[in-house]
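README, section 4: Worked example with a bound small molecule

Sections 1 through 3 covered apo chains. Here we extend the same pipeline to holo records, where the ligand is supplied as SMILES alongside the sequence. The molecule in this example is nicotinamide-adenine-dinucleotide. Nothing else about the input changes; the structure line simply encodes the ligand pose together with the chain.
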Amino acid sequence: MLTAIRECQALTLVSCFDVDADAVRKTAGEYGCVPVGSFEELLASGIDAVVLVTPNYLHGQQVREALAAGKHVFVEKPLTPDIAEGREILDMLVRSKAIVQVGHNTRKRAVFRKAREIVERGVLGRVVSCHAHFSYDAGLHAGLPSWKLDPTLCPLLPLPQLGIHFIDVLQYLVAAIHEVSCFARSAVMKDENGRDIVDSTVSMMRFRNGVTGTLHAHYVVPFTFEVALYGTRANLVCHEDSLSSTSTGDFEFEEEIIPVDEPPYASFIAELREFAECIRHNRTPEVDAETGLRNVAVVEAMKRSVVEGRTIKVEEVRPAKV
Ligand SMILES: NC(=O)c1ccc[n+]([C@@H]2O[C@H](COP(=O)([O-])OP(=O)(O)OC[C@H]3O[C@@H](n4cnc5c(N)ncnc54)[C@H](O)[C@@H]3O)[C@@H](O)[C@H]2O)c1
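The generated complex, written as structure tokens:
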């Protein structure tokens, strides 16, 4: 994120804070900004906006503090760890002109911009179903920050960390998610007391337009990044740097690979440029607090589905418009 701030050429890094004093010193040295000793001091340091790249469980409180101090806020995904905290932010925004943007950078990746264009052109025919899978094996290696290993601070670990990226992408490409059913398990990971940590989730989803889909998110299998849309005329599979499509007609299949060129950090740079533009011109970001909360609501519905062992409608966890 720091590299993206420097390279976006739209924001100036004025000051930085981290509870880890070494990280503050290093960042200040590398990026030429002023180190400060507390979040309060950061908010009082003459800045227009704050970029929060802190543990999920702190997002709600830090966004609210920043808004109360009159700052615009860019907060990494998820907007908040739960709906109640997200609502408090939305309530504050009713009385504020501040911009809140959530770091759902994945939808800004070139493959998903291209995929949306293909869907909108009707190339797939009617989209019938979809499948998304975002995993990597971070849970098999030492060194994870302690908050990710604490189910009270980061419940269903692979969902808020990985799966939520594709929840946002699918709501961008397909439609709002209407209901979900989720299975979660601890395949490998344990905390220091030997208690299970959820490292594997599989969810089924029905979207508002009737499309059905599945979402895999695992923290203990090799890197996998794939979103597939299945339509009456063609299927489209989005990989990190290409799309592959299979179209059908009279029982003949045609396969096409569409390479997509994307420089490193491009989606992070794009979202930060948008943030700066929104502040300058008082515009609403593509992923504003409302959109961010819609993604949080889907994760919350998935959590409730695991606890109650049934399909949950997203409106059950967030009765207002979702
Ligand atoms: N968009 C993406 O692709 C993407 C990728 C990775 C992480 N993230 C998000 O970024 C956030 C950080 O994730 P991470 O993996 O870097 O976590 P991390 O634990 O590695 O880093 C968090 C940093 O916040 C600091 N911190 C902790 N408490 C703090 C406090 N009270 N005030 C100030 N700083 C504090 C920590 O010292 C650490 O430097 C999370 O919300 C995560 O979901 C987004």
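What to look for in the output: The pocket of nicotinamide-adenine-dinucleotide is lined by residues 17-20, 23, 39, 53-56, 58, 76-77, 103, 105, 145, 161 (CB under 6 Å). The first helix runs from residue 2 to 7.

Section 5 describes how to batch many such records.
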